[in-house]
Amino acid sequence: MFTILPTKGFIDQIDGFFCDGIHAGLKPNGKLDLGFIYSDTLCDVDAVFTLNKFQAAPVKHFQRYEKGFKTNFVLINSKNANALTGQSGIDNIDKVFSSLKFDLTNPIMSSTGVIGNPLPVEKIVSGANSFNLSSKNGDNLSKAIMTTDAYPKTSLYEVKLEDGSSFKIGSVAKGAGMINPNLATMLCFICTDAAIPQEDMKELLEANSHTTFNAISVDGDTSTNDTVLLLANKKSNTYNKEAFKEALRLVMHDMAMLMVADGEGAKKAVAFEVNGALNDQEAEIAAKALSNSLLVKTALFGEDPNFGRIASTIGASRVTCDENTLVISYNDVIVFNKGEICFDKAQEAKASQVLKNDKYKVICDLGIAEGKFTAYGCDLGYKYVEINADYRS
């Protein structure tokens, strides 16, 4: 038995972890743009990365380390992705770390921002050398890593085991655009003092990614820099695999839902719940087709319960389906029921009312078998175009 309790605060409340964010001159107007995570003891580390074929220099730099390496430092910059920068991008990371005054072991760098610009090494070195590694300012860190995010994204839990022992797990993340299944466009840093074995880290990261970060979509684009990093300093000397897996799922789900809700001008966060599919794989195909569909997204933006767009998207996904077994609902409002159109004025009004909410479900029961999957998406409106038309500025 175990208890998982949500806790107010940031990753700096976890024993042995320190963090902060500063302005190093990468963003205009004095905004925070460079942050760090530091552990006073070495951490086991594992990660999952973007499936984009053009992985950014920080991802490639991480992959040079030997399997099972330990680290005590993560440096994170915004405004510059250090992607499509070739070998010089990796070399610039080495230049940064060789110029820092701190005693670091296998330091990790993570970057987010505009693709195709050289890393501003001098600004980053100057800023990083001003860090106080004993700082505990998770609020600053959460703001420093933001790009088009409307708000910071953090999560923290305490896990209490039956014998009275406990551990903490928390995260800080960024992500609002270029969000698409296969990691979503994002950076997420998860810290824990749990004594998790190295071999469990990758297993549990990958298991939980499938239903969290790999189940969300804002705009159908996958970034070059997507990273989910798990750092464990083991200072609690406490671990339970079942409890850790669930706590990790909660942390990752929190971050994924905050990203969808923040989807660059988004006003609606929607769960696309597909049930009754031939198998789980076909349910996932249909659910992700719905979360990625531009026609569906614009209908959500217009608060238009157009079930035709839902049905058409499912059919276009080429999964096994039949209009005579299909049921479509907005929350508990059924609009199409096994070949019968239920979209009279009364039902349309009820469905329209559901779509005025900030959060709701689009439920599609294919009526074929037992397969199920839930994907998460958002609406797409004018603000998304405005942000991305002018992104480099």
UniProtKB/TrEMBL annotation:
Site (Cleavage) residue list: 184-185
Annotated localization: Cytoplasm
GO cellular component: cytoplasm
Residue positions of the active site: 185
Main location: cytoplasm
Family matches, as Pfam families: ArgJ
Annotated pathway: Amino-acid biosynthesis; L-arginine biosynthesis; L-ornithine and N-acetyl-L-glutamate from L-glutamate and N(2)-acetyl-L-ornithine (cyclic): step 1/1; Amino-acid biosynthesis; L-arginine biosynthesis; N(2)-acetyl-L-ornithine from L-glutamate: step 1/4
Keywords: Acyltransferase, Amino-acid biosynthesis, Arginine biosynthesis, Autocatalytic cleavage, Cytoplasm, Multifunctional enzyme, Transferase
One of the record's GO molecular function terms: L-glutamate N-acetyltransferase activity
InterPro entries: Arg_biosynth_ArgJ (IPR002813), ArgJ-like_dom_sf (IPR016117), ArgJ_beta_C (IPR042195)
Single Gene Ontology BP annotation: L-arginine biosynthetic process
Known catalytic reactions: N(2)-acetyl-L-ornithine + L-glutamate = N-acetyl-L-glutamate + L-ornithine; L-glutamate + acetyl-CoA = N-acetyl-L-glutamate + CoA + H(+)
Binding residues annotated for substrate, in chain numbering: 147, 174, 185, 264, 388, 393
The protein's Enzyme Commission number: 2.3.1.35, 2.3.1.1
Family: Belongs to the ArgJ family.
Stated role: Catalyzes two activities which are involved in the cyclic version of arginine biosynthesis: the synthesis of N-acetylglutamate from glutamate and acetyl-CoA as the acetyl donor, and of ornithine by transacetylation between N(2)-acetylornithine and glutamate.
Subunit structure: Heterotetramer of two alpha and two beta chains.
Name of the protein described by the UniProt record: Arginine biosynthesis bifunctional protein ArgJ
Source organism: Halarcobacter ebronensis
Gene giving rise to this polypeptide: argJ
